[in-house]
Amino acid sequence: MASKVSQITSAAQFDSLLKSSKVVVADFFATWCGPCKMIAPVFEKIATQLGRKDAVTFVKIDTDQQKEIASKYSIRAMPTFLLFRDGNEIDRVQGADPRKLETLVTMVALEAEMLGGSSGEGSSSGSSSGGSLWNGAALPRGYTDITHNVEVQRTELLNLDDAAAGSVRVLFAPGKPSGKSEALTASAADWVESDTDEQLMLFVPMQSLAKLHTLQITSHPTEDAARPQLIKLYSNSPHNLGFDEAEDTQATQEITIKPEDWNDQATVSIPLKFVKFQKISSLVMFVVSAEDGAEKVRLDRVRLIGEVGDKREMGKLEKIDHEHSE
Hints:
alpha+beta; Jelly Rolls; five-stranded mixed sheet
């Protein structure tokens, strides 16, 4: 079987590839580097599974032979893996630790899923299978969907009804939600529901510090589960909050959602107090109550809109102290 990984032989070739392929994953290595040789089969396997012509492209760059490229992207250790979308670097992991590489794999998987469906539809459309990038509401001018910045493998959801819904990861899936009221099995559900009461506690860690402008939530109400009504947001917590802890902690912002706030895509756009969400390493979303006093609440998608800022060490959250203006 032919390799799915291309060798870069010039800066011009790499620049051209960044323009022609939607997503590029680059392995910066050296022939003398033992860890590079160790991780190479893993990278090759990922490329075989996720590579798509002119969509998701995997390349290897010899830093000794391509010093111009290595210098441009500040490569200081080998191996280093970079992920590009539309020619822009959006993530990197350094070292031959497969666990660290998993972060990049997750990103590539999401990118591949985004590219799997039709691309001719608008921002509020997409395939129900989750193939294309989808937003349930228009994006604020000057800002982008930065949900890809979520460290998905470390998200956590408290009070999840495991028997009636999917895992927390479905909330950040790039495709349009099915909107179904039931699934044959819980693993097939592309939404989440609360369990013992209407409250949910969602912990969303970031890969990079972010500026958050808008929170978009999609919720398809059913006979059993309603849309959220009262939500509290907490910024930069190093871990998920317990329900009692949240009640005793002052929220960064509190939002009451009115029935008329939901659009025809079952989505609400919540403007955030931008000055309070400037350097965000994590977000806790506490769904306090459901519409009409319902005993269960449902979430289909969560989208973060804003800007990605400085990188931080993966897996490490630091609470950031800064003044909050009212």
